[in-house]
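Issue 218. Parser rejects a valid record. Input:
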Amino acid sequence: MVRAIILVNSPKKLIAARLKKILSVTDSFPTSGQFDAVAIIDVDQLAQIKEVANLIQKISGVERTETMVEVQ
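Output the parser choked on:
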């Protein structure tokens, strides 16, 4: 299992709720600061992180994402 955190910049107020609708997103919550929401994802393979990030970037209102992969 590979875990990653995707930071999302979006002016949409309900972006965190929209992120939770993506299958691999195990948790999502709004934040204050440079990014507006965080999505925590769990996938089977490292390559799947890019697929999930691409799905998030296609959500209307998402301006930018930044991905951090958990290192064990």
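Fixed in the parser; the record now loads. The chain has one domain: 2-69.
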